[in-house]
From TrEMBL:
It is a lipid-anchor. It holds the Pfam family ApbE. This is FAD:protein FMN transferase. It catalyses: L-threonyl-[protein] + FAD = FMN-L-threonyl-[protein] + AMP + H(+). SUPFAM superfamilies: ApbE-like. It comes from Candidatus Lambdaproteobacteria bacterium RIFOXYD2_FULL_56_26.
Length: 351
């Protein structure tokens, strides 16, 4: 069976089912399949049933309770969430947050520093300015001016955040600072679901949240889970590469579905905090494999911001398993880091 990974969006359930059926072998243990909506996207879970585990309906109920809890903490736009309240207030006094929020923020800051600020979860003012935020789809006939961009950039800065893990507080030095976890929260959610399944001894599972995947153990026939990386095309479902995962996670970030055009130029939803503008390079998508889905999610965004040259150099330096698809004339080319190539053993399996 092959799961086709899409970029930061829900998977097409029909395609998901076709992929599942394509891998079914008579006599093998068939996985339980669950799905639903969360964080403005979709989630899909497959696991091999074991004796003594809760019924699938109860497993799904617990998964959705978990996701609802995370959403109540990390949603940027829902009223009353931890993040929304932190963003709304302008006080520079410590603000009480959950351990989960601090965990995600700690990882985001670490990746942000390692990437030279390419991943910056304080980028929300720029997201709003460029029309990719709460009022997505707003009139984009007039692009932001240089003055507006500079004003938004003045509100950014990972160094303007003070974390207190012991006291469970978060403090902003800049009253205008705001946080957006959309580049890393789906991966964290996938990790949390995987840990929940482990509690019930459901050790063989695949979890996907918003296109980010974590796979543990094996699928029904004892082989690794197979995850398809899409070609960077407007139409969904064409696979560029199939990756076999066992106790690993895969996250992909790309620029070719969430964008708008003006005067023949494409403006991506992925923004470069240093320039204050949408990314403008040849990289179409980048996929990262790490044990933690949260880490893979954050790194994929960071490398996508940096582009095919700087991103590839950083991925090699950090020892990341990363696969790059970049534009070359009218077509695409690919390249992979040594760590990624080491994961690919033998001929590529067919989708």
């Amino acid at each position: 069976m092959t799961l086709v990974v899409s970029l930061k969006r829900p998977l097409f359930w029909g395609l998901f089912c076709l992929a599942l059926l394509s891998g079914c072998i008579k006599g093998e243990v068939q996985p339980v399949a669950l799905s639903g909506e969360t964080m403005g996207a979709g989630y899909h879970v497959k696991y091999l049933p074991v004796e003594g585990a809760p019924e699938p309906g109860e497993v799904q109920r617990l998964i959705e309770l978990l996701l609802s809890s995370l959403d109540s903490k990390m949603s940027t736009y829902k009223e009353g969430t931890e993040l929304a309240e932190f963003n709304r207030q302008t006080s520079t006094k410590p603000f009480a947050v959950s351990p989960e929020t601090l965990e995600v923020l700690s990882e985001a800051i670490w990746i942000g520093k390692r990437s030279g600020g390419a991943l910056d979860v304080t980028v929300l003012p720029l997201v709003e300015l460029w029309g990719f935020g709460k009022n997505k789809g707003q009139d984009t006939s007039t692009l932001p001016t240089s003055e507006q961009i500079k004003a938004a950039q003045a509100k950014l800065g990972l160094d303007q955040l003070v974390l207190d893990p012991k006291g469970l507080t978060l403090t902003k030095k800049n009253p205008a600072l705001q946080i957006d976890f959309s580049a890393i929260a789906p991966g964290f959610a996938a990790d949390q679901i995987a840990e929940l399944l482990d509690l019930f001894e459901l050790k063989n599972h695949m979890v996907e949240v918003g296109g980010e995947v974590r796979a543990e153990g094996t699928r029904g026939n004892g082989e690794p889970w197979r995850i398809g990386i899409e070609q960077p095309l407007a139409e969904a479902g064409k696979i560029e590469l199939v990756v076999e995962l066992k106790n690993q996670s895969l996250a992909t970030s790309g620029d070719y579905r969430n964008y708008y055009e003006k005067d023949g130029k494409r403006y991506s939803h992925t923004l470069d905090p240093k320039t204050g503008r949408p990314i403008d390079h040849k990289l179409a998508s980048v996929s990262v494999v790490t044990p933690s889905c949260m880490s893979a999610d954050g790194w994929a965004t960071a490398l996508n911001v940096l582009g095919e040259e700087q991103g590839f150099a950083l991925a090699q330096k950090e020892g990341l398993a990363a696969f790059f698809i970049y534009r070359d004339g009218e077509g695409f080319k690919t390249k992979a880091t040594p760590a990624f190539l080491a994961l690919q053993k033998g001929p590529q399996p067919k989708p």
